């Protein structure tokens, strides 16, 4: 995607020529006559500020319709409504903990089955498909292992078995990847992350190409009501204008840091797929994660990602807290694993901060 195209799409189409998107706070819209409408009736159903963002985003994702929701989890929950008891969905094994928790709830409460599979292993996924399988749910870059799945073969497999392919594109964004163009049916984001980009808006977005899917999701969006507020929609639209700049910078910083961390004493494993700003580090057993986190000065110990600041998260007790210990163990989520979302700061500042925090986190050897 070209940078200029991205900025242009994010510009408002307002007739006044306003460069920034107007925020329409009105929840209700006056009808000129009985049976007529301006196209806007009630804000849960449609709001001009939200529509402006949704239209821009659908273009970026190469889709036809986007639905902005009150959080990334609300976006996933919106999609869950496409399935009924007995349906089975094959899901990325190495997945965001909150999505795992929601799917577990849907399994217990509504009888939708979620089977965790390793999308890095095509043959196992293929063999896992049964007559009840209705969809594949893939996080293209696994979390927190940061392995990138080659999704193309799954688009072909899905078509053959009439499955929906659902992609969580949060870590890549439409700047780096447009799955609808490649063959996906539904793309979702926690827009709280790179799309908003400044850690000041909680939001989600679902995008599709197919008209039937758009109609169904549009009905659910209005019916369930977890639609995005006008102000938050404005913030997302504003975020789009700098998405390319922020992605370029955090990817650049992450690539440099990954290289540096391979040679750092105290780090046993660097998990980075080479794209985007997300990586994980496994500390050596002689280094303490709690000491490392409390000694950070530039990077921030906080639980989110995709913002301008570098965030370091401790998946074991944060993002994956509700995952049973044996499941965490299978995924390599232990007390030495840290997840980093690299920000847009000066690279040197990030590197120096990590080095100094590592030095302070080494356990003193008693002789
Ligand atoms: C990959 C991924 N998907 C979905 C979500 C849920 O998004 P939200 O926190 O905006 O509800 C998250 C949150 O961290 C995430 O990392």
From TrEMBL:
Q: Which InterPro entries match?
A: Cys/Met-Metab_PyrdxlP-dep_enz (IPR000277), Cys_met_metab_PP (IPR054542), PyrdxlP-dep_Trfase (IPR015424), PyrdxlP-dep_Trfase_major (IPR015421), PyrdxlP-dep_Trfase_small (IPR015422)
Where N6-(pyridoxal phosphate)lysine occurs, the residues are: 193
Q: Which GO terms describe its molecular function?
A: carbon-sulfur lyase activity; pyridoxal phosphate binding
Q: Name one GO biological process term.
A: transsulfuration
- Swiss-Prot/TrEMBL keywords: Pyridoxal phosphate
Q: Which cofactor does it need?
A: pyridoxal 5'-phosphate
GO CC annotation, single: cytoplasm
Name the family: Belongs to the trans-sulfuration enzymes family.
The protein depicted here goes by the name: Cystathionine gamma-synthase
Per the UniProt record, the source organism is Staphylococcus cohnii subsp. cohnii
Its ancestry begins with:
Bacteria, Bacillati, Bacillota, Bacilli, Bacillales
């Amino acid at each position: 995607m070209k940078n200029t195209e991205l900025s242009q799409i994010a510009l408002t189409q307002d007739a006044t020529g306003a460069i920034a998107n107007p925020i329409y706070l009105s929840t209700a819209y006056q009808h000129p006559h009985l049976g007529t409408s301006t196209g806007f009736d009630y804000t849960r159903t449609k709001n001009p500020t939200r529509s402006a963002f949704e239209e821009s985003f659908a273009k970026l994702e190469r889709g036809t319709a986007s639905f902005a929701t009150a959080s990334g989890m609300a976006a996933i929950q919106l999609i869950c409504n496409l399935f009924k008891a007995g349906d089975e969905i094959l899901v990325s094994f190495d997945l965001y903990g909150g999505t795992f928790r929601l799917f577990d709830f849907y399994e217990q409460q509504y009888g939708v089955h979620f089977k965790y599979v390793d999308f890095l292993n095509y043959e196992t996924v293929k063999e896992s498909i049964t007559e009840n399988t209705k969809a594949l749910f893939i996080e293209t870059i696994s979390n927190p292992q940061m392995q990138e799945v080659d999704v193309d073969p799954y688009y072909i497999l899905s078509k053959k078995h009439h499955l929906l392919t659902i992609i969580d594109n949060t870590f890549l964004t439409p700047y780096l990847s447009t799955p609808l163009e490649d063959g996906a049916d539904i793309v979702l984001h926690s827009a709280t992350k790179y799309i908003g980009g400044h850690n000041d808006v909680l939001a989600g977005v679902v995008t599709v190409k197919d008209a039937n899917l758009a109609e169904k999701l549009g009905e659910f969006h209005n019916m369930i009501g977890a639609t995005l507020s006008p102000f938050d929609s404005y913030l997302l639209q504003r975020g789009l204008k700098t998405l390319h700049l922020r992605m370029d910078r955090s990817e650049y910083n992450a690539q440099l840091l990954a290289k540096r961390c391979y040679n750092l004493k105290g780090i046993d494993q660097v998990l980075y797929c080479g794209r985007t700003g997300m990586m994980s580090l496994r500390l050596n057993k002689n280094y303490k994660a709690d000491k490392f986190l409390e000694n950070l000065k530039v990077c921030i110990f906080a639980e989110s990602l995709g913002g301008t600041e570098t965030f370091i998260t401790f998946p074991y007790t944060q993002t994956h807290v509700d995952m049973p210990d044996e499941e965490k163990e299978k995924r390599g989520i232990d007390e030495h694993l840290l997840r980093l979302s690299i920000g847009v700061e000066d690279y040197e500042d990030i590197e120096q901060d990590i080095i100094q925090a590592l030095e302070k986190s080494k356990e003193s050897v008693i002789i």
